[in-house]
Amino acid sequence: PNPPPYVVECPSLNSSQFDKLLSTLKKTPYDETRRKIAISEIKNNQITARQLKSILETFNFESSKVDVAKEAYDYVCDKQNFFEIYDVFQFESSKEEIIKHINANR
């Protein structure tokens, strides 16, 4: 049987690795340290858009979320689902900044 069309197989962190990463991020008190950990792991492993969304939800500040989203874009293996991350942003300007960054780097 074929999986539903929205399921994309890509070489991302497995659920156990991802759960450990999220746990570490949630225990990290400062956004800047959290950002460094997240980006390091993202650059060493591809992630899905849904995983990125969960990572972004661990951040306290909108600016941190924007920075991580912009840096992580190239490592998202299911870019067709990238739009899923926009729900975590409070401001339209944040979404626009990410879209501008993506379009400028294509």
Outline the structure in words:
The protein has 106 residues and is mainly α. It has helices spanning 15-27, 31-44, 49-56, 62-72, 92-104. The protein is globular, with a radius of gyration of 14 Å. The mean pLDDT is 91.
In short, what is this structure?
The protein is mostly helical. It is built from five helices and no strands.
Shape: globular
Number of helical elements: 5
Oligomerization category of the chains in this entry: single chain
Portion of residues in helices?
A: 55-70%
Low-confidence stretches: none
N-end to C-end Cα span: 35 Å
Any key phrases for this structure?
0% strand, mainly alpha, 5 helices, 106 residues
